[in-house]
Each structure stands twice: as C-alpha cells, then as structure tokens.
Specification:
320 residues, alpha+beta, OB fold (Dihydrolipoamide Acetyltransferase, E2P), Hypothetical protein af1432, 2 domains, seven-stranded mixed β-sheet, 11 helices, 41% helix, 18% strand, elongated
Length: 320
C-alpha cells in the first residue's frame, strides 16, 4: 500500500524505507522508537512502544521494513502507525540484496527532461560569451549532468526528492526570467547565470544511497562554499582560456553567497546588488510554493483544510 493512500480505515501492509529512528523515553519511563518511514509517495510516523536498544539497532536508518497488517491511528490530525515492541509478527526486515532502493525514494512530480531542456536553452541564450562559457563548462560535462539531474535540492524542507535540484533550479530560473521582462536595469545574463548556478554546490553536498544524505564535504563545508569553489574555478579557467578577466566574475560569486538573503538563514552576506535581491526572492518563492504544492498533492478526499504541517508551522486551506 502506498503511504499517501493510508487512512484510518484499513490495516497497512507493505515495504517501506526507514528514514528516521530515535530511541526515546515515554512519560511512564519506558523506552519507545520514534520512526519515520517512506516510499516514493510520501512519509509516515511510526511509534514502537516498549522497545529496547537491541530493536533500535536492528531498525537502522536506510533499511527496508516490511509491515504486516498494522491498523493506522490518528495523532494530532496525522495518520501514524503504532505497535508494541514485543509484537514479533508486526514486521520483518527485507535483506538489502532484495531491495531496489529507487522505488522507495520520492521522485519529482514534474518532467525532468523538460526542466533540463529549459536550462540548456537558457544557457544557449546567454549573450555574454564569458558567462556562457562558464555555464557550458558545467552543462557539457556528463558527470555533472548525471548528478545534477538526480540529487535533491534539500534533505527535508523543499524539493526533497530525486530530481529536486534540477526542478528547483529550473523554477528559480523561470522566475528570474519573468523578473527580467518586468523590471528595468537588470543585468539579464548575470542574473540568469546566477539563477542556474546558485545551488550548484549541492551536487557535492548530497548523495543518494539507501536514502538522501549529506556527503562529508557537504556536512563540513556546506553547499554555498562548495558552489563558490566550483564557480570560482570555472571563472579562472574561462579567464585563462579567453585571456581576459571579466567584470561580472565577482558579481556572479556574490549571487551565490547571498541568495539565502539574511544571515539568520545561513547567508554569509545579504544581497547588495539588484540581481542578488531578485535571485534571493526567486529562490525563496520557489521553495515556499513547492512546500504548498507538496502538501496539496498529498491530499486524498475533499477536505477543505490540510493536516497541520510541521515544516510550514500551519495548516493550509485547500478550498473546495
């Protein structure tokens, strides 16, 4: 059974990826497991009561669990699964050799080929030869493409699915294109180059194995620094190949380091150019809209309100 189809009316059986697992202490002093399982349709919370450390170690993140006939329960307007730790018939672990992990990871709901073609077309339309050569140094690299079209844009908050980075980049680029058509004085090629490259460090920050995870260099350095390093190298190599420097090199790097907008959101500096201001808001808009779309797409039935979403911190109105 797909998790998005789970309601409170019939038992759940199926194979699911263990995404999170924590050993916690209940109010009565007993230990329990607070888990999150998932498939490519969504995620769900699981509680295993009276669990011990042995069971916690068995149910490690990244393993696939086969659940058998567990009746869903409603907790704070959210459907979740619960069973007692001593219930040996509730589940079994699926051997790794028999698991196709791709089927358990969420996939982009959009057309990734269309997103890629849109970005390639945008790169081809960059008039500035220096900036276009920088972009081509990435987009003509098959190794780059392979990772760029698969990794998520985030591990949890937005576009946290296969193809998420590609989809998010296309969305931000489309918004920046619209801004170029409306607002005067924008340096078009600079803004669009920044939009395409703003999250490029995530191809080195995230990895897909048994689930989505951060790489060592991603955890230790972060995607902003990795992205700046990648683009800075491309700027140097392009300058050497063309035997010229470029006035927009520093401005392009500023777009990368400032696109989070404010320091409280992890931005080393705040936007100090018109293009940086627009890129920040386009990036945030695409992320926020996708959070709403993810909730809307996950709904079944004709409810006017979606369940409370911890990521947004509110319940959104669906209408009729």
């Amino acid at each position: 059974m797909e998790l998005k189809k789970v309601a409170g009316d019939r038992p759940v059986s199926g194979q699911y990826l263990i995404i999170e697992n924590q050993l916690r202490t209940a109010k009565n002093g007993s230990s329990y497991l607070a888990m999150k399982i998932g498939d490519n349709s969504g995620e769900m919370a699981v509680k295993i009561w009276d669990a011990d450390e042995v069971l916690y170690n068995r149910l490690e993140v990244g393993r696939v669990i086969e659940i058998r006939n567990i009746q869903p329960k409603i907790f704070k307007d959210q459907v979740q699964l619960e069973w007692e730790g001593r219930n040996q018939d509730a589940f079994q672990l699926v051997p790794d050799s028999k698991v196709d992990y791709a089927r358990f990871l969420p996939q982009s709901p959009g057309n990734l080929a269309t997103c890629w073609d849109f970005l390639v077309e945008t790169v081809a339309g960059i008039q500035d030869p220096f900036l276009r050569q920088i972009l081509n140094s990435f987009f003509t690299d098959e190794t780059f493409k392979e990772r760029f079209i698969r990794v998520p844009a985030a591990l949890k908050r937005h576009h946290a699915y296969i193809g998420g980075l590609l989809e998010h980049t296309a969305g931000v680029t489309a918004l920046c294109k619209a801004a170029v058509d409306y607002y005067p004085l924008i340096k078009r090629d600079l803004l669009l180059t920044g939009a395409i490259l703003h999250d490029i460090g995530k191809i080195r920050s995230y990895k897909i194995e048994k689930g989505f995870d951060g790489t060592d260099e991603g955890k230790l350095m972060g995607h902003l620094i990795l992205g700046v390093e990648m683009v800075q190298r491309a700027i140097r190599e392009t300058a050497a190949a063309r035997q010229e420097d470029h006035d927009n090199g520093l401005s392009l790097l500023h777009l990368l380091v400032s696109h989070h907008g404010i320091m409280e959101w992890g931005s080393p500096v705040e936007p100090l150019t018109l293009e940086a201001c627009i890129l920040h808001h386009a990036d945030n808009m695409d992320a926020q809209v996708t959070k709403f779309l993810t909730i809307i797409r996950s709904q079944e039935g004709n409810n006017q309100w979606a369940p409370y979403d911890p990521g947004l911190g509110r319940s959104i109105f669906l209408g009729s």
